[in-house]
Amino acid sequence: MARNVKLRIWRGDSKDGGLKDVTVEANEGEVVLDVIHRVQATQMGDLAVRWNCKAGKCGSCSMEINGKPRLACMTQVASFGDDETITVTPLRAFPVIKDLVTDVSFNYKKAMEVPAYEHPKNLAPGEARMEQIDVERSQEFRKCIECFLCQDVCHVVRDHEENKKSFAGPRFFIRIAELDMHPLDMLKNRKKTAQEEHGLGMCNITKCCTEVCPEHIKITDNAIIPMKERVADIKYDPVRWLGTKIRKREGL
Amino acid sequence: MTLERHKYDVLVIGAGGAGLRAAVEAREAGLRVAIICKSLFGKAHTVMAEGGAAASMGNVNDKDSWKVHFRDTMRGGKFLSHYRMAELHAKEAPDRIWELETWGALFDRTKEGKISQRNFGGHEYPRLAHVGDRTGLELIRTMQQKIVALQQKDGRETGDMESGIKVFAELTITDILKENGKIAGAYGYWRESGEEVLFEAPAVVIATGGVGKTFKITSNSWEGTGDGHALALKAGANLVDMEFLQFHPTGMVWPPSVRGILVTESVRGEGGVLTNNLGERFMFKYIPDVFKDKYADNEAEADRWYEDQDNNRRPPELLPRDEVARAINTEVKSGRGTEHGGVFLDVSKRIPAEVIKKRLPSMWHQFYELAGVDITKEAMEVGPTCHYIMGGVEVEPDNAAAVGVPGLFAAGEVAGGMHGSNRLGGNSLSDLLVFGRRAGMGAIDYLKKNGANPVSDASIAKAKAKIQAPFDRQGGENSYSLHAELQEITHNLVGIIRTGSELKEAIEKIAEIRKRSANVAVSGGRVFNPGFHLAFDLDNMLLVAESTAKSAITREESRGGHTRDDFPEMDTKWRQINLISSFDGEKVNIREQALPTYPQELFDLFDIHELEKYMTPEETSKGGTK
Amino acid sequence: MSGVFSPTRAKIDKRTLRTDKWWLEPLLTFSVLISFVIYATFRAFENDNYFVKDSHLISPFYSPCLSEACEPGATILGFTPVSAQIFNFALSPALIILIFPLGFRMTCYYYRKAYYRSFWLSPPACGVAEPHEKYTGETRFPLLFQNAHRWFFYAGLVLNVILTYDAVIAFRNAEGEWGHMSVGSIVLTVSAAMLWLYSLSCHTCRHTIGGRLKHFSKHPVRYKLWSKISVLNAKHQQFAWYSLIAVAFADIYVRQVATGAWTNFYFF
Question: Does the first or last residue of chain A, that is N or C, have fewer Cβ atoms within 10 Å of its Cβ?
């Protein structure tokens, strides 16, 4: 039941490049990554593409397919029409290295800027007790496979290179939220630094990160907006601010 | 152009669980560490581990202890595991899991707020710490973030976050370099640019994982090309028992593009049932004699076990992986398989849809998106897939030092000995942590007595020439097609069921491909060129395949992950023997080496009648070493 | 050149390579919102036709009616603290209160997405390059003001109570006797109900009820409420539209009845 599909693949490097048309065979049930591999094995031996698990678990094969950031291993060829040309390009928010491979080091740099988890000093290994309901919110964010599709689609950096300095991006907002909601994390001021150092205020909650997340993490509703509200608690809400001064309330 | 050079105390090759754990250990002792990953940081194959990490914390059933875990591990490996590794593993696994919690890991919880533990094949009690069915991801992310925490600490102290520990992502190591008989460093190239790099480091930890890509149907990603096995062999280390490969019983079989992708054992742990095309729950037919007293022989008892584990025997779906894989293989070969050559695995009839989605979220996701199957409503089609290699670098159990190469250490899947002839599910993640840490400790100790060992220009020139070679050839062999040929050979001739004549054929054919591979030519430039990358991976895979085939033809018995049609029985004599592969620069040679005998206190942990099934009468009457 | 046309990015000369009708959603959002704004502005300044005495119907745009100029009977127990004129301008009673529902919606996390995308084109759709040269998000005035959402949420709750009261008192006949139901009373009830759903499903509400806690296990009641609110919150977008349409329709209905164009039909 093989059929031929028309692919338009971006080929090039940091200096120049463009879309190249190829026709390649596709079998039933195949995903875009399969046909890219076939192109690689039969027509373009040096076509660069990043991939690892081919099961939607590692987040390596991020690219843009018909203009949408997606995992190539989770995009069925059958989801496109028989006559439709499938256009495949590298992620457009990051510097291109070659063909479908981009330099995603921006994300690793940002990962290093988020202060790490801080375990309670008096709590020895094995002594931690946490209720399931207390870890569930953070567990949702720890599902993240770091495909960086959210970082790619976010217009704050996609459309404004200069914002990369001051904006951590959705992936790291969920990391900050994960730590702020972690039942045992002891580090103070995560809310304050989220706003002042990681650029939470730059986000205008247009939700593209949530739309592209292959793990279906509710990035905006469950992490970014709750963090914005937590920031409002300490920075933009005089009543709450006063309350914390008087009563030393939990969660701040 | 000048060569990029780096100097470190410890070089860790591989950024999966074992490598990262080793790096943490070494850095916390104050050493400067480089971590090499072949792909991006955090993408290593550890993320694919689903079920959990085995550790006898006793949170769900307090009868559990390291002794029970040790027994289960030895039994699972058919008493071929190195007793000391199994002992260290069972004793230290709980501490390694708890330690992750202090680094921010969030495991699923019990009602008392402890780490929840689930049932798994071959484990007597619920033992696997888990996070839904994405435990490997949790493990690797936790350690990745621990590395970042250490980097932040270094940043606060020195102003440079990468001063003490640096990650080199997308870099392939092509040679481990020795000078004066000791480790001196490693040579490789950036995958992105093709530029070459020299690392000078007196201690090297190999933690490169497995060899799955040698096979056609595998749960492994492209990275599983046996790099560490081959690098170690070439550096003069030994491989032990390379014939033992674990075929995970449940890989996806349909559609073709996802063939081999893992279906976690937790599906069976949570109550999934295997049936053939007659609707028969066939596993009851395949309970081997040695397991008869531990596994239920009727459906009623098997079903009761999920509710009451103290008074019922376990369902046979939870037999060790080698048994289940062979059973499925037999069913399919006898014409009782599904349309696409698998069997059915069904959870939908036993567990409510919401519970399935909560406990097995990524399985639901995987089948729904890749196969169009809703596992809360229909059965999955599954069949065996090459998953894990028990064999690997021969190491000293206590410090993970590679035998015969001072300064070289190996941990994780690339190391051999721990799992004997068959690994239990869940023992891999805990293995990574326990022996990753011990490899780090080994390196720390080694460096107390051994300083820098500069790399000579001659070694550099040799390593350089090797990388340039495929570009200089014109019109040679295509690495993609050679790889495909190799996979065809291993799949057909060195697969789940083996025979002497086929193995002989395989050895000849592998040698033939190896000859042709010396002539691989690469088109295009050096920048991110996958054809170029595969040329080196292929070389490693060929060496590993040769070692596996030659070990397999030598071992004339069937045990765990090695089944010989011409020698279908387990042989107590062979239990006393490890098969050691070494490399003479031309070919792999195999020799027999006696297993150490158990110390008395470990010997005494077993019922003598159980040992009689595995050991010769002389061994059992002699007992353990005092 | 910035953004996707930056020198280091893959050279692609199109703002987007999307092939679907990505422009449809922002276009629809824009059309509906702009229509509502035009209509609401007209109504706010109309200062008439907001009260139907016989049926006890008051438009949600004009309730609570706080001006001395309010039609008799339209006020709540005659409470009229605001004078009819300010600086010789006749002040429409709608203008006194409209800032609250308007502010609530303007600062709402869903509407922000909707109008940033459809009015500001920032971005028009995912993976479609926005036209602006610079972008600072909600970090400075006036958009920093979005953080006041919670205050409008509290005000919105007060309004919801009042509009619920309006709906209840509409269950009377012309003689003021209870137990009668007209189309108007249903319209006001639906509108009030939608407003409640919109408010309760709001992100600020979810945060206040329990989202701000670090340990749910120490607050079992709030955790339960938070779980319920979270279910509603997933539908906040729908409630935002339903409530907008319900309120607009309630106003149109009252206006039509007040002008005599429609008759308020009584079921009993």
Answer: N
